[in-house]
Every structure is written in C-alpha cells, then in structure tokens.
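Could you show me just one protein sequence together with its fold in token form as a worked example?
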Amino acid sequence: MMKSLYSLSVYLLVALVPLLAGTRLEAQSCLELRIQEQQSRLQITGQGRPVLSQLRITQADQDFKKIYQTLESNESLGQSFTARLNRLGAEILGPFQAEIQGAECVLFVLPPGRIYYMLDLLPLGSKPLYLQKPVAYALQSIHSRKQPVFSARSSALILRDPDTDPENGAGQAAKMYRQARLHKMKGTPVDVLDGARADILLLSAHGGVTVPWEKDGDEDDDSLDWNDDEITAAELEESSFKLLYLDSCQMGISHDMISAATETGASYYMAPVISNEAGNSSTKSIVYFFRALASGQSPLSALFQTRRQIYNEFKGKKAAHILYYYSFPFRLYLLR
C-alpha cells in the first residue's frame, strides 16, 4: 500500500510539472517596452532598439484618451474604436511582434503622465495582447532581481466594504490564507492601516481618481471611501505590504497611490484602470487571482490566468464592451 502511494505521489508530481511551469514569471523574464516622447513623436524602445513612430505624441494622447473614455462609459463599441485599436497596435506593437511572440511576458514602462495608456488592450494579430501574454506595467525601470513569493502561508490584511463587494469575494479570499485578518468596513476605523504589516493588502471600497487630463494641481488627492473617512496615499505611508490589491474604481491610474505603495517598499500594486463592477466579474477577479497566488503562482501569472478565465466564461454570451468591462480592468504594476 505504501509503495502504491509513493508511486502515485511521484506520478502526480511528474504530471504537475508541465502545469506548474512558468508560474514564477518575474520582471527579468519579460520583454520590456518603454514608451517615450522623442521629437514630438511616440518612441517605443525594446531590447535596446528604439523605434520612432510616425504617430505624433499629441495624437497618441488623444487616441488613448478616447479609448479610455469609451471603456469608462461602458457603452457599445463602434467601428472607430476598433479601427483606433488596430492602428495603434500596428504602430506600437507591430515593430516588436516577433519579440513579443517569443517573450514569456511583456512589461510596459510608461511615463506617469501617460498612465492611462491601455497598451495591453491593443491587438497583436486578431486578439488583444492581454489575452495572449502576461502583462505588467511600471512607471520606472525595475532593478530588483528577486521578487517576493506568495503562498497559502502568506499573511494578509483584508478590508471589505459590502457595497463594493456584495458577494464577499474578500471573505472567500481570506479563507485561502492561513494568516488572513478580515475586517468589514462597519466598525473598522481607517487607522487599522497605521503601522499595518502583512504580505498582502486586499482592500475593497469605493474610490475616486482625477484622470490625468483633468488634473490642475489644485485637485484633492485620489482617495477611497471608508465609513465617514477617506483613505488617501498618506494613510499607506506607515504601512508595509508586499502586494497591494485595491478593488476600487480607477485606482489603477492613481499615481498618488502607486507612489505611496512604492515608498512603503511594496513590490506589486494591482487595481482597475477603469470603473469596475461591484460583484460578479470583480468577485471572480478576487477569487481567481488570490486562489492562483495561494497556489504559488506569481502575480504576473495569476493575473493573466484570471483575465483569460473571465473572458472565456463570458465569450459568446456578452457584447465586446461587456467582455472588456468584465475581464480587462485590473492592471498589475511592478514597483521595484
């Protein structure tokens, strides 16, 4: 009997090796594509090779602004939307098609003022890049060669507003981690974050972000609503997390929050770039992502798997703009 169990264990281990391959994808495995302005035009640099696009930077800004506004409105997509994506895909991804296809993952490095560029939505061939490759973003060069590893033993601080998480995805995620602390919003003060230490912060709450083209220097800081208070970048300053996951509208384009996460020593920041759904697809995002993370997958792999799984669940059942609304919003930033 013992011999049979041993043989079965060996068989399962061998069988699982191909399935586990690639789950530890990190920044050093990715093709880095850097977006810059050069001679008033858009320049893309990959593997030390700069490509100066024919696209003027002002036109690129306008195109990505329209793409952002279209997705944020969650309205049906017209032919002009598809044509714009195809044109930008040819200009930005086209010159590096072979390199992208041969890469394990793609890392886009953006200047902060162009944080709203949705580069992983652009098509490579017939499908958006985010459905073909693991993708991450950065606002500066990534120097760290060693990234934290997550598992079911990782510690987690989980804060939940039932209004934004009506199906209790946060509670489901808490059950996956042995050292998870779950707090509902009611009765939990903002200062729960003061000096907080954990591998993971999962925070679900309503949020507000001023988009880059509307900032004038006098705007209030981006913030999340918490009871009668607000959680701003300042509330994160004294905390320490390795990964921050904000289930909060548009926090994926909040330079304030990303900078605060970087200053506190975090390695990863993840949040939706547009307004995301309360429940349903957002619940699936939480559950699928943290299940993959608890199994030992890297955040890069976990997000890729999550997006594809949600897309495939609704493909053929929902219109294109709903498919994007469900599967696309969350973005992963590498911070160091």
Q: What stands out?
A: The longest helix spans residues 2-20. The chain has two domains: 28-138, 155-213+222-334. The first strand starts at residue 30 and ends at 38.
